[in-house]
Amino acid sequence: MILNNESAKKVAQSLLQIKAIKLQPNQPFTWASGWNSPIYCDNRKILSYPKVRTFIRQQFVDAIKEHYPKVEVIAGVATGGIAIGALVAEELGLPFVYVRATAKGHGLQNMIEGEVPIDKNVVIIEDLISTGGSSLTALKALRDAKSNVLGMVAIFTYGFETAVQNFKTNNCSLITLCDYNILIETAEADNYIAENDVKSLSEWRTDPEKWRK
Fold first, then answer.
1. pLDDT, tens digit, for every residue of 102-137?
2. Where are the domains of the chain?
3. Fold of 5-206
4. What is the mean pLDDT of the chain?
5. What own/partner pairs with CB < 8 Å and gap ≥ 24 does 142-145 have?
């Protein structure tokens, strides 16, 4: 679920203004998966814009205070969730750890970096949810380390049905600051896309693998 519609629209406006999200239905991007995509999302750009960075951080803080008041540790998912997660932890005055995509291949072979939050209430910070695969890998790593994961908060989700089902299967609540539907509505209202682009953008979200093959 999104935090609320009004704040989600402001998040969408911020992401579009700094071009953290680009919409090009007539000049699609190619993802690493091979999918053609009318959208490209790079939320790391947020870090380069202090006002936007502070706004997004505060949205995370508000979401966590409202939905996960018993949180004891913030965990960022590598790599996109590390910097923003550290900012959120700093604002909340809480310990911070981050979770690698895979265990380090040398030394202690850590997957969780920092003081492992055994028996602690953890909220995971993520920048982007696509299928949910990397996010749920982090969830499993924390649960395997005997952390009590309260839930996950992310900046943006495409809202793929695969991701929805993956989070349900893994019994993990997910709150996002913005989602695909709000983004498209905002982009159209603010003239980032034309009215006749909306159908194509909606078709992509329904079946991204086959879109414009």
1. 766 555 568 999 999 999 999 999 999 999 999 999
2. 5-206
3. Rossmann fold (3.40.50)
4. 94
5. 142/75, 142/99, 142/112, 142/117, 145/112, 145/116, 145/117, 145/118
